[in-house]
Amino acid sequence: MDEFSIIREYFSRQVVHRDDVIVGVGDDAAIVTAPPDLDLVCTTDMLLEGIHFPDSTEAYAVGYKALAVNLSDLAAMGARPAWTTLLLSMPTADLGWIKGFSAGFFALAAEYHVQLIGGDLSRGPLVVGVQALGHAARHQVMLRSAAAVGDAIFVSGQLGDAAMGLRAVQGRMRLPAEVRDRVVHRLAYPQPRVDLGLAIAGIAHAAIDVSDGLFSDLGHIAASSGVTARIGLDLIPISSDFREYGAELGWQTALCSGDDYELCFTAAEKHTAQIIEIGQELNVPLSKIGWIEKGQGVKAVAADGTEFVPQHQGHNHFAA
Ligand code: ADP
Ligand code: MG
């Protein structure tokens, strides 16, 4: 099947047809209309086989995750996703793979009413590039630089399961089948916290999505805001699977491994009750894990006062 047939067959049919898309897939470029009173928020993320997903990952999961990580970035800004574009390079036109990939991609796109409006296709190593665009109310986006001294720090969901999933897939960790399935699913199918991002925008100050490990990502908030983020280790939300099977991996894995795709954000202490309520309404567990102080960097302290200092902070492609 040639390039144009693949585009027609696998990337032009989708259930989402947005009113704000004037020209979608099929011309030299797409045209959309953006509401005049909202800001346009754009992000892009690349996925490489063997680096961002294990070689064995099923095509459906690659398609899903390629979009999910981008929607997660929009969520961390408090933006509502609207459109996406897709770059795909692959060694051969494996139609079974392409079919699975596009099904995973479009399943998540439909869930968030996101329309694919263009892309490109090439022969080469397996590389997926996705751009996601959305809108946000002016002055309501959550910037990494907006944490204020006295803020409480929150994180959604639970940390560490995806890291366990990666170890299991890589054959570095043996787990009971049912636990393995759960944590591998967490790795392959992160749920972007879009609704949470939208709900806390306007209340929260700084936010980031936890893609490289909480320690590293919260470190970005601390650095951009010029503050210290102090977190209590006993307050970090860990799943019962991690507690039971990941304990020996410890905080190094729970706090310094990627792929959780939870939201970490700060907000004035007085909004705590309101934020916990938002979590309950959305059925997203939210934990208050610490607070913002004067200073710099992340301080992770156990209940007995000992500080956890990571061997390495989180995923970093060009780290020495
Ligand atoms: P051009 O040569 O002008 O770059 P292409 O032949 O690459 O055009 O693409 C034709 C149309 O198909 C364009 O609208 C482009 O955005 C779209 N397209 C190409 N590849 C993809 C893809 N993987 N997913 C979605 N749309 C795609
Ligand atoms: Mg092209």
What topology does this entry show?
Blueprint: H1 3-11, E1 21-23, E2 31-32, E3 38-48, H2 59-77, E4 80-90, H3 95-111, E5 115-123, E6 127-137, E7 151-156, H4 161-169, H5 177-188, H6 194-200, E8 207-210, H7 214-225, E9 227-232, H8 240-246, H9 250-256, E10 262-268, H10 272-282, E11 286-294, E12 297-301, E13 307-308
Parallel strand pairs: 4-5, 9-12
Antiparallel strand pairs: 1-2, 3-6, 4-6, 7-10, 7-11, 8-10, 9-11, 12-13
Helix pairs in contact: 2-3, 2-6, 4-5, 6-10
The structure holds adenosine-5'-diphosphate and magnesium ion.
How would you portray this structure in words?
With 320 residues, this protein is an alpha+beta fold. It contains ten helices and 13 strands. Strands 8-10-7-11-9-12-13 form a seven-stranded mixed beta sheet. Strands 3-6-4-5 form a four-stranded mixed beta sheet. Strands 1-2 form a two-stranded antiparallel ribbon. α2 runs parallel beside α6 (194-200) and α6 packs antiparallel against α10. The longest helix has 19 residues, at 59-77. The model has no long low-confidence stretch (mean pLDDT 94).
Helix content: 25-40%
In percent, how much strand structure appears in the residues? 25-35%
Number of helices: 10
Output the radius of gyration. 20 Å
Low-confidence stretches: none
The overall pLDDT average reads: 94
Structural class: alpha+beta
Hetero groups: adenosine-5'-diphosphate, magnesium ion
Count of individual beta strands? 13
Overall 3D shape: globular
> Which sequence of strands runs across the widest sheet?
8-10-7-11-9-12-13
* Distance between the ends: 43 Å
